[in-house]
């Protein structure tokens, strides 16, 4: 970043704590922490509260480290996108070198201390997640293929597996199911955003599906992935992490989600432009509730099991 670009961004003083914290992508970290916590608490066996706290803390730090490294690498495209140009680096409040140093330090710190606090399977999974998000998604897939979100979505799907591994020392069918739920949710979530933010990705040269194949193709993809996600989400109710409460949540939300996807699929560009992408924005907002509600239901089912109500479950695949 040049001095001129910093001045244009309105940099007028030293960075504050909030600027460095913003490097960690706290909104994304919220999802990482919650899904990791569900994975940890849904796992069989007891985990000491202090160990559980340390596990979630270090997973959160690892997620933040990924965010800092992502901002360091993507500073050039962040500067030209309306949604990201006020981030700490393009706005000039934090330098790229500072973000790189923070990201690398927190990556090593989080992996080592998660391994020491819990086990090295969890530590190894966290290390792989950081590597996948930074090297595979950010540095390679994001600028190379319209399938960037599809493949790169794996990075955001690992936290519940890490939480499960922190509690059990291994990987199981249940943790893989939670991974799959997040993995399949990611494409329709981000493609909905891309529909009403296409100009941002176009200006930045990011090959999102909306840019390379157009909005019509993106709408088709959203519908297909939403239908597949709905089938997976509802089927999860009949596994050992599901149950009647989860089933009710899954049925209600997936009916709404599929309806939203169908609404998007039926629309043409004139209709979308006319109401400023009302349906697309509504679908995107619903997608945020969608994942939190599903994992919240898994957490409730786990709590009922620990309280001795496992007999109420639907876990025919358990």
From TrEMBL:
Sequence intervals crossing the membrane: 28-44, 50-73, 94-114, 120-141, 148-170, 176-196, 222-239, 245-262, 283-304
Reaction(s) catalyzed by this protein? heme b + (2E,6E)-farnesyl diphosphate + H2O = Fe(II)-heme o + diphosphate
Provide this UniProt record's keywords sorted from A to Z.
Cell membrane, Heme biosynthesis, Membrane, Transferase, Transmembrane, Transmembrane helix
Q: In which pathway does it act?
A: Porphyrin-containing compound metabolism; heme O biosynthesis; heme O from protoheme: step 1/1
The record's annotation in Pfam families points to: UbiA (PF01040)
Subunit info here reads: Interacts with CtaA.
| Family, similarity comment | Belongs to the UbiA prenyltransferase family. Protoheme IX farnesyltransferase subfamily.
Q: Any other noteworthy remark?
A: Carbon 2 of the heme B porphyrin ring is defined according to the Fischer nomenclature.
**Record's protein name:** Protoheme IX farnesyltransferase
This chain's source organism reads Thalassococcus profundi
Gene behind the chain: ctaB
